[in-house]
Write a structure and sequence with these properties.
The protein is α+β, with helices and mostly antiparallel strands. It is 53% helix and 20% strand. Helix 2 packs across helix 3.
């Protein structure tokens, strides 16, 4: 029984690296990334890492579908989107504490942004 865990982990590691380009138009790629399917922390990590790269404008990483939308400015990229995606996947998922901190900071910022937007709309 102890041997079962090894191959399962290896298969999981291989699956997390698989990805395929679903569509590409200038400045916009959609990828299928099984490694984020059902893994909200992996999707959050992938999004955060890609968005920190030069030339990346927006990333939507959907753990429910395993798909990733990457919008970018081609002339500003330091590497191909595929290479950036591979590096982000190598990093792995966020730790539970990193993920919680990310969501706590978002939840504290959103009410402030809503209040600001509301105040601006009354001006």
């Amino acid at each position: 029984m102890g041997d079962v865990k090894g191959p399962v982990d290896l298969r999981s590691a291989v699956e997390s690296r698989k990805r395929s380009l679903r569509s590409r138009i200038y400045g916009r790629d959609r990828w299928e990334v099984p490694g984020i399917l059902g893994n909200v922390r992996a999707a959050a990590s992938l999004k955060a890492l890609l968005e920190s790269e030069a030339g990346i404008r927006r990333v939507v990483a959907n753990d429910a579908t395993g798909r990733v939308l990457v919008e970018y400015t081609p002339s500003e990229l330091t590497d191909s989107v595929e290479a950036l995606l591979n590096r982000a996947l190598d990093f792995g998922p966020m730790s539970p504490s990193e993920f919680n901190a990310l969501h706590e900071s978002k939840s504290s910022v959103l009410p402030a942004l809503r209040a600001l937007a509301s105040a601006e709309s009354t001006l």
